[in-house]
Amino acid sequence: MKEKNKKLFILFLIFLIVLGTRLYFAFQTPQFNDDGYLNYRLVEHISETGKPLFYDQLSYNGRDLLYSPVYHYVLAFFDLFLPLDFVLKFLPNFFISLLVFVVFGLTNLLVKDRNLSMFVSLLSGFVPIVFVEALNNISVYSLVLPLVFYLLYLFIKINERKNIGKFALFSFFLAVLHPSAFLLLVSLLFFVILMVSEGIKINKIKNEVLIFSIFLVLFVEFLIYKNAFLIHGFDVIRNNVPTQVLASYFNFSFLETVLKVGFLLLIFGFVSIIWGWKKKNEEVMLLSSLILSTLLLLWFRLIKAEVGFMFLGIALLIVSGISFKLFLKYIDKTKFSNYKNSITVFSVLVVVLSLVLPSFIDASQNINEVTPTNYEILVLDWIRENSLPDVTILAPLEKGHLITSVAGKRNVIDSSFLLAPDTSERFKDIETIYSTKSEVKALNLIHEHNVDYIFVPIETELKFGKVKWLDDESCFEGIFFGTPKVYKVIC
Fold first, then answer.
1. CATH number for the domain whose boundaries are 31-67+75-81+372-491
2. What rounded mean pLDDT belongs to the chain?
C-alpha cells in the first residue's frame, strides 16, 4: 500500500510540475492569443447573460454563430467564484495537464512498467505543439485531448463492466463538446479495419461499443451542426475557410511534423508501431489507428494542421514507451550493460531536452509574437471608449476577434468561418485594401463594407508595405501612429 501511495504522490508531483510550468508562461502576459479572444467573448457573454451567443452583431457586421457552448459553460461556471481572466488562464492549462494521468494509464497498459510510464507521463506535458497550442488561447482542445485519450483507455479496458457506462457517458460528452468526436469515430473504424486485416477477432463487448459510438457521434454531431451541413454541404469539412487561406490553414508537411511533434518521438513511435503490428498487440493497434487516421486527415487537408499534430504527438509519445523499454532491454544484452545506469540517464536527458527546450522556445515566441501588445490593447480600449457603438473597424483576418472582444466593435472578417458570409470574397477585399496603390479602389471597398476605422498592425505593414493612400488627410484622420496605426474614415 505504501509503494502504491508513493507512486501516486510522484505522479501528482509530475502533474504539478507540468501545470506550474504552463502557468509560468501563461501568466507572463495579461493578454490572450488573438484567436483566444473569440472564446473569451463567448464565455463572457454566458457569464453576463446565462445564454450562449448564437447571433453575433459584431462578427462580419452581424452573423449567426454555430458551435457547441458546453466548454464555455464549464469555464463560465467557475467565473461565479473566481475572476474571469484568472479562470481563462488557469482552467485550460489545468485541463491539458490532466493528460499526465491519462498518458500514465495508457502507457502502463502497454509496457507494464510504472517507472517508465511515469517518465512518459512527464514527457506528455512537454510535447512542443501541445505545450504551445493550449497555453494561452483558451482552446477547447485543452479538454478534448485528455478526453479522447481517456476514451481510448476505457475502450482498452472495456471488458470491465464499470467502464462500459463510463465510455458511453464520456463519448456523449465528447460529442456535445466538439466535432473532434469524428476523429475518434474514424480512429475506431480504422481499428476495425486493422484488426480484420490482421485476422484478429474483436470481442463482442467491443463490437457493441463500437456500433453504439458510431451512431451516437453521428446523431449528436448532425443534431448540432445540421444547419452547417445544409448551407455548406461537403465544404463543411473544410470549415468554410476562404480559398486563399486553405493552403496555410491546412498546411501539412514532413518538416512541419518533425518541428511540431519532435524527431525522436517520430522515430521511437514508428518503431513501436512496427513492433506492435508484428506482435499483433491490440493496444498498439488501437493507438496506431488514431495515428493513421490523423495522418490521413492531415494528408487530405481535412483537419487543421496544429490540431492533427497535437493528437499525433501524444499518441506517438504513448506508443514510444514500448521503444524505450526495448532499448533498455537491449542494453542488458550488450557489453554496455555495466554502464546501463549512465546510458539510461544520458538517454533520458536527451529525450527530455529534445522536447522541453523546443516547448520553452516556442512558448516564449508565442507570447511575444502571437499575443497582442499592451499598446494594441491601449489603442483598442481607446476606440471602445471614444467611438460610436455601431462603428466597423477594418482589420486583417488574424485581428478580427481582437477587434470584437477588446474594442467591442464590428469587424469585417475573423477566423470563425462556419456560417460566415462570403469568406473568400471578404478576405480578397481586405487584402486588396491593404495592398492597392489606388485610393479610389480602396475607398470603393471601404464603403462597400461600411468601414469607419482602419486598423493597421505591424504585421500588415511588413506584408504589404506602407499604405500610402492613408496619408490623404481629406479622407483619413490619423488617430494613432505607432504599432498599430489607426485611421478614421472621414470621406
1. 3.40.50
2. 89
